[in-house]
Design a protein that fits this description.
Layout: E1 4-10, E2 13-18, H1 26-38, E3 44-48, H2 54-62, E4 67-71, H3 75-87, E5 94-97, H4 106-109, E6 115-120, H5 136-142, H6 149-159, E7 160-171, H7 175-185, E8 188-196, E9 206-212, E10 222-223, E11 227-228, H8 238-246
Parallel strand pairs: 3-4, 3-6, 4-5, 6-7, 8-10, 8-11
Antiparallel strand pairs: 1-2, 7-9, 8-9
Length: 259
């Protein structure tokens, strides 16, 4: 393993991540933010493909009464996730399961199932549309080597409580994949929110989708206002500052814009 960096994640909690490996990013932060705003009452939470534990930690920080489970198949990532759970003193609340989320036996093997809240940040580069990184951790985080959003939605549908909620992010260029996956899994599409990394970009980078088993009243999917992370000059927006405050992190109003 190469050099680890020691980074803030929520409040005074910290996360170790490989300097040259997979690192948590805007999709993790936005997914945890959307999920915990939508279900502040959740007490049994699951993160599918939890990686190094970034979404788990943010959800655990925002929902201090909740028990959480993370499922991760990639060896190096689950090892780091365990270390990050332990360093923040969360062993009593967070369980990590080293399994492939496509394994249907998960339905009967996770002690806290069914779950009030399920999150997922799947990779969204189909196999064959790019060259996988030679680093296994980065390759699995970026490419759909163990499936994409369809597999995450299908797994979540088997593990959700009747009134449970799934929040998952997906490629903004392919919304039909999520709609089709939800329909195939018997989930209702409740809300979508585009995430734009920088104002005046060509389009959103990804979309946050909120799905559930309970069918909503007839009508259109709620389209929430987009989340814009940086303005056209590269400075963090008020929304981005608000998310940092939401997770108990300091805000530097004088921070230089990103180039």
């Amino acid at each position: 393993m190469d050099v680890l960096t020691d980074d803030a994640i929520a409040g005074d909690w910290r996360i170790w991540q490989r300097r040259r490996g997979h690192r948590y990013s805007l999709d993790d932060v936005a997914t945890a933010w959307e999920a915990t705003r939508d279900r502040p009452d959740a007490r049994r939470c699951l993160d599918l493909g939890c990686g190094i534990g970034s979404v788990l930690l943010m959800v655990a920080w925002r929902l201090p009464e909740a028990r959480l489970t993370g499922v991760e198949a990639q060896d190096e990532s689950v090892d780091l996730a365990r270390r990050n759970v332990e360093r923040n003193g969360l062993e009593a609340r967070v369980a990590l399961v080293h399994r492939d989320l496509r394994d249907r036996a998960l339905t009967d093997s996770l002690p806290d199932a069914p779950f009030d809240l399920v999150t997922g940040t799947p990779p969204y580069m189909p196999v064959g549309q790019g060259t996988p990184s030679p680093d296994p951790q980065r390759a699995h985080a970026r490419m759909e080597l163990r499936g994409g959003v369809e597999e995450y939605v299908a797994a979540a549908a088997r593990l959700l409580a009747p009134d449970g909620t799934l929040v998952v992010c997906a490629d903004a260029r392919a919304p039909q994949r999520v709609l089709d996956a939800a329909a195939a899994a018997g989930l209702a599409t409740l809300r979508r929110r585009d995430v734009i990394p920088r104002a005046r970009a060509k389009g959103p980078l990804f979309t946050l989708w909120t799905l559930g088993l309970a069918q909503p009243p007839p009508g259109d999917i709620l389209v929430a206002p987009p989340l814009v992370a940086r303005d056209e000059h590269g400075a963090r927006t008020d929304e981005a500052h608000g998310i940092r405050r939401f997770f108990g992190l300091p805000v530097d109003e004088g921070e230089a814009p990103s180039p």
